[in-house]
Each structure stands twice: as C-alpha cells, then as structure tokens.
Amino acid sequence: MRTQEAGEVFGPRMTLFADVLSVGLATSVACLPLVTAPAALSTACAVLRGAGQDRPVTAGRYVVLLRQRLRAGDLLAGAVALAGLLLFAADLALAGAGLPGAPLFAVTAAVIGACAAVVGLRACARPESLTDWRAAVRGAARDAVADAGGSGLVLLAVATAALCAWMLLPLAFLAPGPLALALTAVDVRRSAAASLQ
Fold first, then answer.
1. CA atoms of 81 and 72, how far apart (whole Å)
2. Where do the TM regions start and end (predicted)?
3. In angstroms, rounded to a whole number, what is the distance separating the alpha carbons of residues 38 and 81?
C-alpha cells in the first residue's frame, strides 16, 4: 500500500475502508434478486482481491465485473443457494413445531447448515468462482476441512455481519463489503500458507 502523501487527510487504509463500504453497498443492491447473491458476493471478493494487486477497488469496477458474471451458471448457483436456505428454514420450522426428537434435529440441522454456509462462502471467495462454480465448491470443501481455523473465521465474520445488521438495520446494506473482505482475507491466508509448505 502506498503511504500517506503530504496534505492528504486520510491514509490508504481509510481509503480502502471506504472502498470496501461502497463495494458492500453495491453488493447489497446486486443481491436483492436473491438468485444473484453468490455471483454478487464472488464479484465483491474478486474486486477486493485486486487491492493486493494494485487494481482499483471501486463500486464502478464492481459493476463492470458483475455485468460479465451474470451467466446461467451464476444464476443456477444462486438458485441452489436459495433452495438450500429455504430447506434449512423449513427444517428449523419443523423442529420448532414440537416434533419428537426436535432438539436433536435442530442441532443437527444447525451444524449441517453452518457447514454448508462455510463451504458456500469460501467458494465465493475462491478465484475459480469467477468461471467455474463446481471447481470453487470442491476447493472450498477441501479448504473447509483442511483449514478449520479459516472456517472458524468465516463463521465469526458471518456472525459479526449478522450482529451489526441486527443492532442497526442500515448497516445490513454495508455488511456485505466487510464480509467479502473477511472471506477474501481467509482465502488469501490459506493460499499463502499453502505456498509456504
């Protein structure tokens, strides 16, 4: 990162923070149709990954990349993610209805849902998600098992984003930016650790 120049009010880290928030707002808008959520989050991760390669991190670059992304495969990934989320909600509703064995079923459903969320979010952060969702999901599943610490960080990032959105509703529109930054950082951390071995 460049250093703060004379007369500059904010340094490069504050500029990156502002860019992350603008990308987060653009991601929120792109996620509104719901089936575009994986492509939108994956694009945000790709744009933020570019910060380490001296590419601009702007909402404009995000929109340009997203326009190239909305293919049938991206929409299918969104439909699968939406179906999984609806199935998870239905399972929790059934568990709350007082069926026999409901507490154990609820815990099992929560664990399966958390694992699926970790794999899905880690897949969004992988560079392969820009062109091949299947390869991204396979790689994310391997990473989720091999890098348990990174998977824990992904869950913490999701919990933090959810808590911020719950505490102050307008933050829900900015939360995808820091979430994408956290996912990208976990993936870059994994890549760096793999290259050192």
1. 14
2. 20-48, 75-98, 104-124, 145-169
3. 8
